[in-house]
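Extended Data, panel c. Modelled sequence:
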Amino acid sequence: MVYELRSFTCGEHRLAYEIHGAGPQTVVLMHGLLLDAHVNRDLATALADAGFRVVLLDLLGHSRSDRPHEPTHHRFDLYALQVIALLDELKVRQAVIGGLSLGADVSLHVAAIAPNRVRALFIEMPVMEWATPAAALLFAPLLITVRRAKPLVRLWSGIWKRLPRPKHNVGISVMNLLSMSPEELGAVLHGILVGPVVPDLAARRAMTMPTLIIGHPGDFLHPFDDAAALARQLPNTQFLEAKSILELRTKPERLLPGIVKFFTDHGMQRRVVERAVR
Protein backbone atom coordinates (compact mmCIF):
# COMPACT_ATOMS: atom_id res chain seq x y z
CA MET A 1 0.00 0.00 0.00
CA VAL A 2 1.69 3.19 -1.22
CA TYR A 3 0.26 6.58 -0.34
CA GLU A 4 1.41 10.12 0.37
CA LEU A 5 1.10 11.79 3.78
CA ARG A 6 0.47 15.53 3.75
CA SER A 7 -0.83 18.30 5.99
CA PHE A 8 -2.07 21.87 5.63
CA THR A 9 -3.12 24.75 7.85
CA CYS A 10 -6.80 25.53 8.25
CA GLY A 11 -7.28 28.63 10.36
CA GLU A 12 -5.04 28.15 13.39
CA HIS A 13 -4.82 24.38 13.17
CA ARG A 14 -2.92 21.76 11.17
CA LEU A 15 -4.91 19.04 9.44
CA ALA A 16 -3.41 15.81 8.14
CA TYR A 17 -4.48 13.87 5.08
CA GLU A 18 -3.39 11.02 2.83
CA ILE A 19 -3.45 10.72 -0.97
CA HIS A 20 -3.99 7.31 -2.56
CA GLY A 21 -3.75 6.97 -6.33
CA ALA A 22 -3.51 9.61 -9.03
CA GLY A 23 -6.66 9.33 -11.13
CA PRO A 24 -8.43 12.28 -12.79
CA GLN A 25 -11.39 12.19 -10.37
CA THR A 26 -10.86 13.08 -6.70
CA VAL A 27 -12.73 11.31 -3.91
CA VAL A 28 -12.52 12.72 -0.37
CA LEU A 29 -13.40 10.24 2.38
CA MET A 30 -13.82 10.87 6.11
CA HIS A 31 -13.76 8.55 9.08
CA GLY A 32 -16.27 7.92 11.84
CA LEU A 33 -16.37 9.62 15.23
CA LEU A 34 -13.04 9.33 17.14
CA LEU A 35 -11.64 7.06 14.42
CA ASP A 36 -9.15 8.14 11.73
CA ALA A 37 -7.99 7.64 8.15
CA HIS A 38 -6.98 4.04 8.84
CA VAL A 39 -10.65 2.99 8.79
CA ASN A 40 -10.89 3.99 5.10
CA ARG A 41 -7.43 2.90 3.91
CA ASP A 42 -8.44 -0.46 2.44
CA LEU A 43 -11.35 1.17 0.62
CA ALA A 44 -9.01 3.92 -0.62
CA THR A 45 -6.60 1.32 -1.98
CA ALA A 46 -9.39 -0.44 -3.86
CA LEU A 47 -10.69 2.83 -5.32
CA ALA A 48 -7.17 3.93 -6.26
CA ASP A 49 -6.69 0.62 -8.09
CA ALA A 50 -9.94 1.41 -9.96
CA GLY A 51 -8.49 4.71 -11.21
CA PHE A 52 -9.49 7.34 -8.63
CA ARG A 53 -7.40 9.73 -6.58
CA VAL A 54 -8.61 9.18 -3.01
CA VAL A 55 -7.92 11.67 -0.23
CA LEU A 56 -8.40 10.60 3.38
CA LEU A 57 -8.78 13.52 5.79
CA ASP A 58 -8.21 13.30 9.54
CA LEU A 59 -10.71 15.81 10.88
CA LEU A 60 -9.68 18.18 13.65
CA GLY A 61 -9.29 16.36 16.96
CA HIS A 62 -8.54 13.03 15.31
CA SER A 63 -5.31 11.08 14.74
CA ARG A 64 -2.47 13.10 13.16
CA SER A 65 -4.43 16.35 12.93
CA ASP A 66 -4.26 18.89 15.75
CA ARG A 67 -6.35 18.03 18.80
CA PRO A 68 -7.51 21.20 20.54
CA HIS A 69 -9.15 20.69 23.92
CA GLU A 70 -11.90 23.32 23.44
CA PRO A 71 -15.30 21.85 22.48
CA THR A 72 -16.11 24.93 20.37
CA HIS A 73 -13.76 23.60 17.66
CA HIS A 74 -15.59 20.30 17.24
CA ARG A 75 -18.84 20.71 15.35
CA PHE A 76 -20.13 18.97 12.24
CA ASP A 77 -20.59 22.24 10.35
CA LEU A 78 -17.07 23.41 11.28
CA TYR A 79 -15.66 20.07 10.15
CA ALA A 80 -17.40 20.67 6.81
CA LEU A 81 -15.50 23.94 6.41
CA GLN A 82 -12.28 21.95 6.87
CA VAL A 83 -13.27 19.73 3.93
CA ILE A 84 -13.86 22.79 1.75
CA ALA A 85 -10.47 24.16 2.85
CA LEU A 86 -8.92 20.82 1.85
CA LEU A 87 -10.41 21.14 -1.66
CA ASP A 88 -8.88 24.62 -1.87
CA GLU A 89 -5.53 23.24 -0.69
CA LEU A 90 -5.68 20.54 -3.37
CA LYS A 91 -6.83 23.09 -5.97
CA VAL A 92 -9.80 20.83 -6.73
CA ARG A 93 -12.94 22.55 -7.99
CA GLN A 94 -15.20 19.56 -7.37
CA ALA A 95 -14.85 16.14 -5.76
CA VAL A 96 -16.89 13.19 -4.65
CA ILE A 97 -17.36 13.81 -0.92
CA GLY A 98 -18.20 11.01 1.46
CA GLY A 99 -17.59 9.17 4.65
CA LEU A 100 -18.70 6.81 7.37
CA SER A 101 -21.02 7.86 10.22
CA LEU A 102 -19.55 11.19 11.39
CA GLY A 103 -17.95 11.48 7.94
CA ALA A 104 -21.31 10.90 6.27
CA ASP A 105 -22.95 13.70 8.26
CA VAL A 106 -20.04 16.06 7.62
CA SER A 107 -20.42 15.31 3.89
CA LEU A 108 -24.06 16.40 4.06
CA HIS A 109 -22.98 19.67 5.66
CA VAL A 110 -20.44 20.21 2.85
CA ALA A 111 -23.24 19.70 0.32
CA ALA A 112 -25.43 22.22 2.17
CA ILE A 113 -22.70 24.86 2.53
CA ALA A 114 -20.97 24.55 -0.84
CA PRO A 115 -23.01 22.39 -3.26
CA ASN A 116 -20.97 23.62 -6.22
CA ARG A 117 -17.90 21.86 -4.77
CA VAL A 118 -19.61 18.46 -4.55
CA ARG A 119 -19.56 16.28 -7.68
CA ALA A 120 -21.43 13.50 -5.89
CA LEU A 121 -22.07 12.30 -2.33
CA PHE A 122 -21.11 8.96 -0.80
CA ILE A 123 -23.06 8.54 2.45
CA GLU A 124 -22.25 5.45 4.50
CA MET A 125 -24.28 4.80 7.67
CA PRO A 126 -25.59 8.33 8.38
CA VAL A 127 -26.51 9.33 11.94
CA MET A 128 -29.74 11.34 11.90
CA GLU A 129 -33.06 11.69 13.71
CA TRP A 130 -33.74 8.01 14.40
CA ALA A 131 -30.27 7.63 15.95
CA THR A 132 -30.73 10.47 18.46
CA PRO A 133 -31.91 8.38 21.46
CA ALA A 134 -29.10 5.84 21.02
CA ALA A 135 -26.49 8.56 20.54
CA ALA A 136 -27.63 10.35 23.70
CA LEU A 137 -27.56 7.12 25.71
CA LEU A 138 -24.06 6.29 24.48
CA PHE A 139 -22.20 9.60 24.26
CA ALA A 140 -23.57 11.55 27.24
CA PRO A 141 -22.46 8.95 29.85
CA LEU A 142 -19.15 8.52 28.00
CA LEU A 143 -18.54 12.29 28.13
CA ILE A 144 -19.33 12.39 31.87
CA THR A 145 -16.96 9.47 32.48
CA VAL A 146 -14.17 11.11 30.51
CA ARG A 147 -14.62 14.41 32.37
CA ARG A 148 -15.04 12.96 35.88
CA ALA A 149 -12.57 10.10 35.77
CA LYS A 150 -9.58 11.64 33.99
CA PRO A 151 -6.89 9.72 35.92
CA LEU A 152 -8.47 6.39 35.06
CA VAL A 153 -9.03 7.35 31.42
CA ARG A 154 -5.43 8.60 31.20
CA LEU A 155 -4.15 5.30 32.61
CA TRP A 156 -6.36 3.37 30.20
CA SER A 157 -5.22 5.40 27.18
CA GLY A 158 -1.57 5.07 28.20
CA ILE A 159 -1.85 1.29 28.21
CA TRP A 160 -3.42 1.21 24.73
CA LYS A 161 -0.87 3.70 23.38
CA ARG A 162 2.00 1.36 24.31
CA LEU A 163 0.48 -1.77 22.81
CA PRO A 164 1.61 -2.90 19.33
CA ARG A 165 -0.79 -2.12 16.52
CA PRO A 166 -2.51 -4.95 14.61
CA LYS A 167 -2.14 -5.48 10.88
CA HIS A 168 -5.77 -4.70 10.05
CA ASN A 169 -6.45 -1.00 9.43
CA VAL A 170 -9.80 -0.96 11.26
CA GLY A 171 -8.10 -2.44 14.32
CA ILE A 172 -5.41 0.24 14.17
CA SER A 173 -8.07 2.96 14.02
CA VAL A 174 -9.89 1.54 17.06
CA MET A 175 -6.65 1.29 19.04
CA ASN A 176 -5.80 4.89 18.17
CA LEU A 177 -9.23 5.87 19.54
CA LEU A 178 -8.56 4.00 22.77
CA SER A 179 -5.21 5.80 23.06
CA MET A 180 -6.71 9.31 23.07
CA SER A 181 -6.27 11.43 26.20
CA PRO A 182 -9.33 12.36 28.29
CA GLU A 183 -8.96 15.99 27.23
CA GLU A 184 -9.00 15.05 23.54
CA LEU A 185 -11.92 12.66 23.92
CA GLY A 186 -13.90 15.08 26.05
CA ALA A 187 -13.47 17.99 23.65
CA VAL A 188 -14.71 16.06 20.61
CA LEU A 189 -17.63 14.42 22.41
CA HIS A 190 -18.70 17.69 24.01
CA GLY A 191 -18.47 19.61 20.74
CA ILE A 192 -20.47 17.21 18.60
CA LEU A 193 -23.26 17.11 21.20
CA VAL A 194 -23.64 20.90 21.00
CA GLY A 195 -23.63 21.65 17.27
CA PRO A 196 -26.06 20.55 14.53
CA VAL A 197 -25.67 16.90 13.53
CA VAL A 198 -27.17 17.06 10.02
CA PRO A 199 -28.52 19.90 7.85
CA ASP A 200 -32.24 20.52 8.22
CA LEU A 201 -34.81 18.80 6.05
CA ALA A 202 -35.19 21.69 3.60
CA ALA A 203 -31.43 21.75 3.01
CA ARG A 204 -31.38 18.00 2.43
CA ARG A 205 -34.19 18.15 -0.11
CA ALA A 206 -32.25 20.82 -2.01
CA MET A 207 -29.23 18.53 -2.53
CA THR A 208 -29.57 17.58 -6.19
CA MET A 209 -26.12 16.03 -6.71
CA PRO A 210 -25.97 12.25 -7.32
CA THR A 211 -25.83 10.46 -3.98
CA LEU A 212 -24.99 6.88 -3.09
CA ILE A 213 -26.28 5.84 0.34
CA ILE A 214 -25.25 2.70 2.21
CA GLY A 215 -27.37 1.48 5.13
CA HIS A 216 -27.54 -1.71 7.12
CA PRO A 217 -29.90 -3.30 9.65
CA GLY A 218 -29.26 -4.22 13.24
CA ASP A 219 -27.25 -1.19 14.41
CA PHE A 220 -28.81 1.06 17.05
CA LEU A 221 -26.36 3.94 16.40
CA HIS A 222 -26.68 3.82 12.59
CA PRO A 223 -30.29 2.72 12.16
CA PHE A 224 -31.44 1.56 8.76
CA ASP A 225 -34.41 3.95 9.07
CA ASP A 226 -32.06 6.96 8.96
CA ALA A 227 -30.39 5.79 5.75
CA ALA A 228 -33.74 4.91 4.16
CA ALA A 229 -35.24 8.28 5.17
CA LEU A 230 -32.29 10.14 3.67
CA ALA A 231 -32.73 8.20 0.41
CA ARG A 232 -36.32 9.46 0.25
CA GLN A 233 -35.40 13.05 1.13
CA LEU A 234 -32.63 13.57 -1.42
CA PRO A 235 -33.91 13.79 -5.00
CA ASN A 236 -31.10 11.94 -6.80
CA THR A 237 -30.09 8.85 -4.85
CA GLN A 238 -29.03 5.25 -5.23
CA PHE A 239 -29.15 2.86 -2.27
CA LEU A 240 -27.02 -0.13 -1.30
CA GLU A 241 -27.91 -2.32 1.67
CA ALA A 242 -24.92 -3.68 3.56
CA LYS A 243 -25.11 -6.75 5.74
CA SER A 244 -23.28 -5.02 8.60
CA ILE A 245 -21.21 -1.92 9.40
CA LEU A 246 -18.06 -3.98 8.75
CA GLU A 247 -18.98 -5.58 5.41
CA LEU A 248 -17.35 -2.92 3.22
CA ARG A 249 -14.14 -3.15 5.26
CA THR A 250 -13.89 -6.89 5.78
CA LYS A 251 -15.69 -8.42 2.77
CA PRO A 252 -16.01 -5.62 0.18
CA GLU A 253 -16.45 -7.85 -2.87
CA ARG A 254 -20.25 -7.52 -3.02
CA LEU A 255 -20.50 -3.74 -2.44
CA LEU A 256 -17.39 -2.40 -4.14
CA PRO A 257 -18.44 -2.86 -7.80
CA GLY A 258 -21.57 -0.74 -7.24
CA ILE A 259 -19.53 1.99 -5.55
CA VAL A 260 -16.97 2.11 -8.36
CA LYS A 261 -19.71 2.18 -11.00
CA PHE A 262 -21.51 5.02 -9.24
CA PHE A 263 -18.35 7.13 -8.97
CA THR A 264 -17.37 6.43 -12.57
CA ASP A 265 -20.79 7.00 -14.14
CA HIS A 266 -21.64 10.22 -12.36
CA GLY A 267 -18.12 11.58 -12.40
CA MET A 268 -17.85 11.22 -16.18
CA GLN A 269 -21.32 12.67 -16.73
CA ARG A 270 -20.55 15.75 -14.63
CA ARG A 271 -17.26 16.35 -16.45
CA VAL A 272 -19.00 16.22 -19.83
CA VAL A 273 -21.58 18.74 -18.61
CA GLU A 274 -18.88 21.04 -17.23
CA ARG A 275 -17.01 21.03 -20.57
CA ALA A 276 -20.23 21.77 -22.43
CA VAL A 277 -21.00 24.72 -20.13
CA ARG A 278 -17.54 26.17 -20.66
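The CA atoms of residues 130 and 225 lie 7 Å apart. This feature is highlighted in the accompanying rendering.
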